Amino acid sequence: MSPIRAAVPKPTGDSWRAELFKEWHQAETIAPTSMVVAVTKSITDKIVCDSGIEKTFAQFLENRDDVLLFIKLPHWFKIDTPLHGYNPDWAFVREHPEGKILYFVRETKGTDKLEELQWESEGWKIKFGSAHFEKLKVDYFWGYDPNVLIEVSHR
Predict the structure, then answer these.
(1) For the chain, which end, N or C, has fewer CB atoms within 10 Å of the first or last residue's CB respectively?
(2) What is the pTM of this model?
């Protein structure tokens, strides 16, 4: 089997009104569940998480003084890949001690090894997402450890 190569992303001109993140995302965050995290550094006051790992990460970001803003990306925020839409988990803005503002996109999983992911397609979407954000010069990384995910990616 020949390896699948990540497609080089090309700007499409697609854009989303900022209000959509609040309007649609707020509707998603009001469902009663134990996976709701109350937050003050997002565009809504609650974030619904899909797993305990996501809940831990949301609480971690909320408690960091250097995280200025974060969002659990809504289900409709998709990146086109050869395996259809990929929906990364998180976007956040962090202030670096040197005064730089850093922009991150993160995927939270129960492992940091591709071969341990539940489905092979998850690994491919992560690879495609990595190529996409690298082209856009947005720091993208994935894994399970919040202490690693908060740092600049060196992969």
Answers:
(1) N
(2) 0.74
- Rounded to an integer, what distance in angstroms lies between the CA atom of residue 58 and that of residue 55? 5
DSSP state of 126: H
Residue 81 is inside which H or E element, if any?
A: strand 79-81
Q: How far, in Å, are 32, 42, 90, 91 from residue 28 at the CA level?
A: 10, 14, 15, 17
Question: How far apart (Å, rounded) are the C-alpha atoms in residues 115 and 152?
Answer: 23
Contact 62, 69 (CB under 8 A): no
Q: Retrieve residue 1's tokens.
A: 């089997």
Token digits for 105? 């996109």
Is the dihedral angle over the CA atoms 105, 107, 108, 113 positive or is it negative? Answer: negative
146: amino acid identity, one letter: P
